[in-house]
Amino acid sequence: MRLTAYTDYSLRTLIFLAMHREQHVTIQDIADAHGIAKNHLTKVVHQLGTLGYIATTRGRNGGLRLGMEPEDINIGDVVRHTETDFHMASCFDDSSAGCMYSANCGLKGVLGSATAAFLAVLDAITLEQVVIKEERKQRGKAAPGKDPGVQDIAMHFKAPRKAA
């Protein structure tokens, strides 16, 4: 599962705003902090504003701020609003030509379950939880224990097979 750059920028924007709640922030501030083109970020900010996640203020002292409290922003909801689809394979897309194995293939069910599990984990996390973890990381302090509901992910790869 891979999130689009659009969703990545959306999440980064929300995290940045949550970490800078004491001030109005500009799109340029966020773009500079993350090395993102301002015109890409403008589209992201517009949608996040339309969805109510961000409030904008025009004028000399204007800028962006969160439109909701961080504990009310569910990461799963943000991802669902910003991703175009969750097609893990072409058989998930009704507009695709289909697959010759679809009649007897169990892969679609397995991938569907994996996607549901992925979203269930994101549904259990709020922006507040993400920001607390990020602030600890930036301060360089190790968190005593783990945040409830958040598991570290360990990636395991098989060693490449040696040629016979």
Describe this protein's structure.
By secondary structure, the protein is mainly α. The chain has a two-stranded antiparallel ribbon. A hairpin with a 5-residue loop joins strand 1 and strand 2. The protein is elongated, with a radius of gyration of 19 Å. The relative contact order is 0.13. About 4% of the residues have low confidence.
Topology (elements, then pairings):
Layout: H1 5-19, H2 27-34, H3 38-50, E1 54-57, E2 63-66, H4 75-82, H5 107-123, H6 127-139
Antiparallel strand pairs: 1-2
Question: Beta-sheet strand percentage?
Answer: under 5%
Give start-end ranges of low-pLDDT stretches. 153-159
Number of strands: 2
End-to-end distance, in Å?
33 Å
Pairing-aware structural class of the strands and helices? mainly alpha
Percent helix range: 40-55%
Total of DSSP H or I helical runs spanning 4+ residues:
6
Average of the residue pLDDT scores: 82
Radius of gyration (Å) = 19 Å
Order of strands, main sheet, comes to 1-2
Short summary of the structure?
The chain is mainly alpha-helical and 164 residues long. The protein has helices at 5-19, 27-34, 38-50, 75-82, 107-123, 127-139; strands at 54-57, 63-66. α1 (5-19) packs antiparallel against α4 (75-82) and α4 crosses α5.
Keywords:
single chain; 164 residues; mainly alpha; two-stranded antiparallel ribbon; 6 helices; 5% strand
